[in-house]
Amino acid sequence: MKQSIGSIQKTKNNRKLTMITAYDALFAKLFDEKVDFILVGDSLNMSFAGKPDTLSATLEQMIYHTNAVCSGAKNTFIICDMPFGTYTNELDALNNSVKVFQQTNANAVKIEGGSSKAHIVKHLTQNSIAVVGHIGLMPQNFRSEGGYKVKGKDEANIETLIQDAKDIEKAGAFCIVVEGVKEDAAELITKAVDVPVIGIGAGIKVDGQVLVWSDMLGFFEDFKPKFVREYLNGASLVKDAVDSYVKDVENLSFPSDKEKY
Ligand code: KIV
């Protein structure tokens, strides 16, 4: 059954939460009811659309993929990533999030940013849009920061991250994703807030974990972040299967008598 925000929040200090990304109905159906949340991440711009970063994902694309995921996973809490440039001010953030809520069955949106985005989180939550925050390494800063930079390496940055988490919690975020942060910093952030903190590349001392589906199932071969555990060698399985198909067609063993009308 689909989790409610209340039931998600009650898991804090009781059990670990699980989140996985999905971009289509086929995989969303396989993940349905197995995890607490499905995130339609703007990482789809890289693993689905083959782009070098998440920045060119559009609202229309996120709505299209969120619709597909909602069709596949009817019993899981679904979060839609707000893409780069769609929540730079309160009005745009609300108009664009309302489009997501009106045109899909998403249960929440996720936005990247800490204290500086707290007013946006507040505006959305005050207008009935549930918000997941995202702090630490924020992929939408890839170009402005010149790459993916691990956070929480020094005391000043740890203090900033803790304040980021506190400010977006106060603004109404019911859950916070913390990405690419040293484990001790992630632990301090987790202890500083009452809402669940979901880590990715942030160690084990958080309230739950999220992985990108194509990384954890071994389909994305362009690069492998250190924090990813591959639970399947998807790319080799698919390539071997396609090689077998081609061989079977070429040597006339497919289709067989049983595989025709
Ligand atoms: O876009 C995404 O898949 C994400 C995860 C990395 C948390 O934001």
Number of domains: 2
Question: What's the main sheet like?
Answer: 8 strands, parallel, barrel
CATH architecture group name of the largest domain: Alpha-Beta Barrel
State Rg.
20 Å
Average per-residue pLDDT, rounded, comes to 97
Could you give the distance between the termini?
41 Å
Q: What gross morphology would you assign?
A: globular
CATH topology value of the largest domain: TIM Barrel
Helix content percent band:
25-40%
Per DSSP, what share of the residues sits in E-state strands of 2 or more residues? 5-15%
Task: Give the strand line-up of the largest sheet.
Answer: 1-2-3-4-5-6-7-8
- Point out poorly predicted stretches: none
What's the count of strands? Answer: 8
Under CATH, the homologous superfamily of the largest domain reads Phosphoenolpyruvate-binding domains
Task: Write a structural description.
The structure is a single chain. It contains ten helices and eight strands. It is an alpha/beta fold and 261 residues long. It has two domains: 5-230, Alpha-Beta Barrel (TIM Barrel), CATH 3.20.20; 234-261. The protein has an eight-stranded parallel beta barrel with strand order 1-2-3-4-5-6-7-8, surrounded by five helices. The mean pLDDT is 97. Bound molecules: 3-methyl-2-oxobutanoic acid. The site of 3-methyl-2-oxobutanoic acid has 11 residues, from strand 6.
Highlighted features:
alpha/beta, TIM Barrel, 8 strands, eight-stranded parallel β-barrel, 261 residues, binds 3-methyl-2-oxobutanoic acid, 2 domains
Task: Chart the SSEs and their pairings.
Blueprint: H1 5-9, E1 17-21, H2 25-31, E2 37-40, H3 44-47, H4 59-72, E3 77-81, H5 90-103, E4 108-112, H6 118-126, E5 131-136, H7 155-171, E6 175-179, H8 183-192, E7 197-200, E8 208-211, H9 213-216, H10 234-250
Parallel strand pairs: 1-2, 1-8, 2-3, 3-4, 4-5, 5-6, 6-7, 7-8
Helix pairs in contact: 2-4, 4-5, 5-6, 6-7, 7-8
The structure holds 3-methyl-2-oxobutanoic acid (KIV).
Residues 21, 39, 41-43, 81, 177, 179, 200, 210, 212 line the site of 3-methyl-2-oxobutanoic acid (KIV).
